[in-house]
Design goal:
The complex is a heterodimer of chains A (324) and B (244). With 324 residues, chain A is α/β, with parallel strands linked by helices. In chain A, 35% of the residues lie in helices and 27% in strands. The N and C termini of chain A lie far apart (55 Å). Classes of the chains: A alpha/beta (324), B mainly alpha (244).
Chain lengths: 324, 244
């Protein structure tokens, strides 16, 4: 394993405030192999960025070990910086530098030979379709282009481990695909890629394994298929409501129900597909809904189910609301 | 990768990052210098040679000190707020090399304003400086100490507080530091404060190396500046190394 994170715990304590502090990571373990893209999912504040910043040596864990290629990265942060390249979560200000200069200088600061770095930079710029901004001052780049440049800075002289913290934010849908292809390419070249994202649906298609963090704890880990196992037989019935109509009461076979504005999503067992279509068709004919669609469960459903949150009402709560 | 190679690349990076700031820095320094050599004389009915020397040497001193204690902490605090300082810390570069590269760029940035301040003072009062051989190390020490202390300020203090402190610093350096006038004119308590702070020593080494005939110089301000410089560098280095 190229990256081994074992039982990492980190609590932020303010020197000005007494008390237990904020627990950002609690007993988190995971490992990423060469050639693997590993996704980290979780709400805002779940501890994802804290975890990856410990890998690159910006934050020191309170307990636990991080090994990169077998070496203790906590004890030797300068080795960690050499071995890991990072695309930070924060938008990187490169005012004064053009993408051409920023990517090349970082590539060489990471130890790359000038000619190799230039060749790789040009390949990345072409692959991400950034050519038209290559000589534009960083101050004048849009958020999405800056994000892609920041990715190229992490990928131009990649470490053994490449840490990408929300690389697809602000990126347009077409370039997002190009970006995912480059992420796979990094892994294909032998890097271990640790990737933080909120985009569960994209992650499902592009990561080999993933972990879900909530409140600093790792609550699920595995391949996308493994994580979906419990839900594999579930289907999603999405109802688009007629304007002005309240969401209909869920039918008896509905396992979970999430009304949300002009839509309502019902999770149903696969066996109930027939009755579900009949129910939805009847709602449509009676003018309660405009249309409906029936799709298999996604990783996002696993995520919402595991992490919970305001979007995940249980069917009991919805029914109780109606009773009241 | 050798430290020298990293240093060269970091200097290149910082020059590109700060190049837009350079014209602004020159204009601000020039205004400071003009304010001192053209504005301050308006306060006096007549100028004696001693006063002229104080103003002509005070102008370069103030341009150097305000860049180090005001501009540097402002720019470094901004880099901290924007996350670019933290990003640079993720690169595989020794912390000391990073710090030295950044300080070198600042030393170059302050140079044009300094030259202007020297020239405008000498021209306005029609003075010929009695330049000592120590002038280069003296100016280098003043510039390095003020930038190192400014850098340390920005590394240690929360960005908002650091920027606020730089505003206080402008008034303190311009009006309440013995750079344009002898320290005897300050109230006793402020004199005692200046015995500990490096600003008076900065003024002394600049006056002593530009006008040694009127302002004899001793080793003690050099030693004091060396101590402050080492302290500033040490604190900045330790905070850059520190892991949260």
């Amino acid at each position: 394993m190229l990256l081994e994170i074992e039982r990492i715990t980190k609590t932020y304590r303010s020197p000005l405030r007494r008390g237990p502090g904020t627990r950002a990571n609690a007993d988190v373990s995971l490992s990423v192999d060469a050639g693997q893209v590993y996704g980290l999912l979780g709400h805002n504040g779940a501890g994802k960025t804290t975890l990856v910043n410990q890998v690159v040596g910006l934050i020191r864990p309170d307990a636990g070990t991080i090994r990169v290629a077998g070496r203790d990265a906590v004890a030797d942060p300068s080795f960690a910086r050499q071995a890991c390249s990072l695309q930070p979560q924060a938008q990187l200000p490169i005012d004064g530098l053009t993408p051409r200069q920023a990517i090349e200088l970082v590539g060489r600061l990471r130890g790359g030979r000038a000619a190799d770095v230039r060749m790789r930079r040009d390949r990345l710029v072409a692959a991400l379709d950034l050519g038209q901004w290559l000589d534009t001052d960083g101050a004048r780049l849009s958020g999405g282009v800056k994000r892609l440049v920041s990715f190229a800075m992490a990928a131009v002289s990649p470490g053994l481990v490449v840490v990408l913290d929300e690389p697809t934010n602000d990126v347009d849908p077409v370039r997002r695909r190009l970006l995912w292809a480059e992420v796979r390419q990094l892994a294909g070249e032998g890097a271990a890629v640790l990737l933080v994202t909120h985009n569960v649906l994209e992650a499902e298609r592009s990561v080999d394994r993933l972990a879900i963090l909530t409140e600093g704890r790792l609550i699920a880990e595995g391949t996308p298929a493994e994580l979906k196992t419990g839900l594999a037989a579930d289907l999603h019935l999405e109802l688009v409501l007629e304007p002005g109509f309240p969401p209909p009461s869920p039918a008896a076979f509905v396992a979970r129900y999430r009304p949300n504005g002009s839509r309502a999503v019902a999770t149903i067992p696969a066996a109930a597909a027939g009755p579900a279509v009949a129910w939805a068709e009847q709602l449509r004919r009676s003018g309660v809904i405009e249309e409906f669609s029936l799709t298999p469960a996604t990783l996002e459903d696993v995520y919402v189910q595991l992490v919970g949150g305001p979007a995940a009402h249980s069917i009991r709560e919805v029914r109780d609301d109606r009773a009241a | 990768m050798t430290a020298l190679r990293s240093y060269r690349l970091l200097v290149h990076w910082q020059i590109l990052r700060l190049k837009g700031f350079v014209p602004l820095a020159i204009v601000v320094q020039a205004l400071f210098a003009l304010g001192i050599v053209a504005g301050y004389p308006l306060l006096f009915p007549a100028l004696d040679r001693q006063t002229m020397l104080f103003l002509a040497t005070g102008a370069p001193a103030i341009t150097l000190i305000t860049m180090g204690l005001v501009a540097v902490p402002q720019v470094v605090s901004q880099a901290r707020t924007q996350g670019s300082l933290e990003y640079m810390r993720t690169l595989p570069v020794p912390r000391m090399v990073f710090l030295l590269a950044d300080l070198s760029v600042w030393l170059v940035i302050v140079l044009p304003g300094l030259v202007f301040a020297l020239w405008v003072g000498a021209a306005r009062f029609d003075l010929a400086f009695e330049v000592s051989l120590l002038v280069v190390p003296a100016f280098l020490l003043v510039a390095l100490t003020s930038t190192a202390v400014g850098y340390a300020m920005a590394c240690v203090l929360p960005p908002m507080i650091a920027v606020l402190l730089t505003q206080v610093m402008v008034v303190f350096v311009m009006l309440f530091s013995p750079l344009n006038f002898p320290s005897e004119r300050l109230p006793g308590w402020l004199q005692s404060i200046h015995e500990v702070l490096p600003i008076e020593a900065m003024g002394e080494v600049i006056r002593g190396t530009l006008a040694g005939g009127s302002f004899p110089i001793s080793a003690s301000p050099f030693l004091m500046l060396a101590a402050w410089c080492a302290g500033g560098l040490g604190i900045a280095y330790l905070t850059l190394r520190r892991r949260a």
